[in-house]
């Protein structure tokens, strides 16, 4: 009579092995998803840091190269800078060049989707993750999906100290899911 070979896996051993492999795979998937989410956040953060750097660099380059003479508050921003503009300043340079500086961010469907900062003829789009209109539930608006708040309420401030004018221009850009300051903050002494 022959002895049976008892070296094969039992059903319980196969199920336990499968269970351990699944637990390992689920943990790996969770780790991959966490890193993917972090990468997306860092990419978004990088977009805002780049926006801040580009606007600041362009304004500061003109201030240094063209020689800022004064910054003037625009009394009628709609007539000077365009429809939907609440606050606008004009930078006047020594060579006679004038450039307007403002942010477009009206709280309308169109304004929420197309926020931007403008300096001279250059527009810098402010990114926001608003879904297309056909993906927004009926009865809701794009306003409820915006994550970025733009505020140019502190756009212009001037102080006179010792015969010099200190101009400060601020456009706050606040993203609700980040603690970073993405705003444009420029100070010039003339």
Describe the structure.
- It is built from three helices and nine strands.
- 35% of the residues lie in helices and 28% in strands.
- It has helices at residues 11-67, 77-81, 109-113; strands at 68-73, 88-93, 98-104, 116-119, 122-125, 148-151, 157-161, 164-175, 184-189.
- The longest helix has 57 residues, at 11-67.
- A hairpin with a 2-residue loop joins β7 (157-161) and β8 (164-175).
- It has one domain.
- The chain has a five-stranded antiparallel β-sheet. Strands 6, 7, 8 and 9 form a four-stranded antiparallel β-sheet that branches.
- With 190 residues, it is of the alpha+beta class.
Show the helix and strand layout.
Elements: H1 11-67, E1 68-73, H2 77-81, E2 88-93, E3 98-104, H3 109-113, E4 116-119, E5 122-125, E6 148-151, E7 157-161, E8 164-175, E9 184-189
Strand coverage percent: 25-35%
What value does the average pLDDT take? 90
Helix content: 25-40%
| Rg computed from alpha carbons, rounded to a whole number of angstroms | 28 Å
Number of helical segments with 4 or more residues? 3
Write a brief structural summary.
This protein is α+β, with helices and mostly antiparallel strands and about 190 residues long. The chain has three helices and nine strands, in the order αβαββαββββββ.
Question: Tags for this entry?
Answer:
190 residues; 5-stranded antiparallel beta sheet; 9 strands; 28% strand; alpha+beta; 4-stranded antiparallel beta sheet
């Amino acid at each position: 009579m022959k002895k049976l070979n008892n070296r094969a896996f039992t059903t319980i051993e196969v199920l336990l092995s499968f269970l351990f492999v699944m637990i390992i795979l689920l943990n790996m998937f969770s780790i991959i998803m966490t890193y993917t989410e972090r990468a997306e956040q860092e990419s978004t953060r990088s977009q805002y840091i780049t926006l801040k750097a580009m606007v600041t660099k362009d304004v500061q380059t003109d201030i240094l190269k063209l020689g800022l003479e004064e910054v003037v508050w625009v009394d009628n921003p709609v007539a000077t800078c365009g429809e939907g503009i609440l606050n606008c300043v004009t930078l006047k340079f020594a060579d006679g060049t004038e450039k307007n500086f403002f942010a477009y961010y009206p709280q309308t469907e169109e304004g929420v989707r197309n926020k931007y900062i403008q300096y001279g003829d250059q527009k810098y789009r402010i990114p926001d993750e608003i879904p297309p209109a056909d993906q927004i539930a009926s009865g809701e608006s794009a306003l409820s999906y915006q994550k970025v708040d733009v505020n140019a309420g502190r756009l212009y401030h001037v102080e006179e100290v010792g015969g010099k004018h200190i101009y400060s221009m601020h456009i706050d850009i606040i993203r609700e899911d980040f603690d970073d300051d993405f705003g444009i903050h420029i100070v010039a002494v003339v």
